[in-house]
Amino acid sequence: QKEVEQDPGPLSVPEGAIVSLNCTYSNSAFQYFMWYRQYSRKGPELLMYTYSSGNKEDGRFTAQVDKSSKYISLFIRDSQPSDSATYLCAARSGGSYIPTFGRGTSLIVHP
Amino acid sequence: DAGVIQSPRHEVTEMGQEVTLRCKPISGHDYLFWYRQTMMRGLELLIYFNNNVPIDDSGMPEDRFSAKMPNASFSTLKIQPSEPRDSAVYFCASSPGQGTSTDTQYFGPGTRLTVL
Fold it and tell me: I want to staple A63 with a disulfide (CB 3.0 to 4.6 A). Which of A16, A48, A106, B22 is the partner?
């Protein structure tokens, strides 16, 4: 079992929908959490970065971490076709600078 | 800045052949990472360097894989001999590291390797 688990999808939603992407993790030492976005045939790019529990908002994106349940979420408001990509969550402990990635969830936003 | 540069973008080779993948990190970045991505296993860290020194190569699958970073602007990942199960997309990433975490990794476009 991977330390960071994601449903691979695909998740298909209509334009304008609110999207919820989720990950679970098993390592209690994880303190830093990230979401990367990967377009087809491109490398991943960092989208959101959070420390410990709580919410962080950036435009249409909100990252949420619940350490008590080891649950990581990314919400996308007013989703656009340009949001169609694979979203990878990642986490790391305070003692390591190397994140552990989930397999990614494929999101399709159709017009 | 041109970002992380990888070459070749695509590589098709036959089993048993040597494969060399190349990476030029972003200038000034202290950390360089090599990843492999497959549908089954997702993104896996193979090895990473700090200031040209290999720090952790525990992700390198076996002795057929080797990586070098002779200077701050160039790294190679070599597979010799290659096998069909090595088929994957290989990403190089770099990170500034200084005074920050290495969470902000900047990925290259990847090399899609197919071993027949």
Answer: A48
What's the gap in Å between the CA of A78 and the closest CA on chain B?
26
* Dist CA A74 CA A22 (whole Å): 6
How many residue pairs from chains A and B have C-beta atoms closer than 8 A? 50
Render the burial of A10-45: b for 16+ CB within 10 Å, e for the rest: ebebeeeeebebbbbbeeeebbbbbbbbbeeeebbe
Cβ-Cβ contacts under 8 Å, B101 against chain A: 32, 97
Is residue A30 within 8 Å of residue A87, measured between CB atoms? no
Instruction: Report chain A residues whose CB lies below 8 A from the CB of B31.
Output: 97
End-to-end CA, chain A: 36
The verdict on a CB contact (< 8 Å) between A44 and B45 is no
Distance CA B76, CA B18 (A): 13
Tokens linked to A44 = 């991943």
Confidence of residue B61 (pLDDT cuts 50, 70, 90): confident
The larger pLDDT score, comparing residue B102 to residue A75, is at A75
Question: Distance (Å) from the C-alpha of residue B42 to the closest C-alpha of chain A?
Answer: 4
A34 in contact with B at a CB cutoff of 8 Å?
Answer: yes
Q: Which amino acid is at B99?
A: G
User: Is 60 exceeded by the pLDDT of residue B102?
Assistant: no
- And the tokens for B107? 């990925």
Cα–Cα distance for residue pair A7/B3, rounded to 1 Å: 30
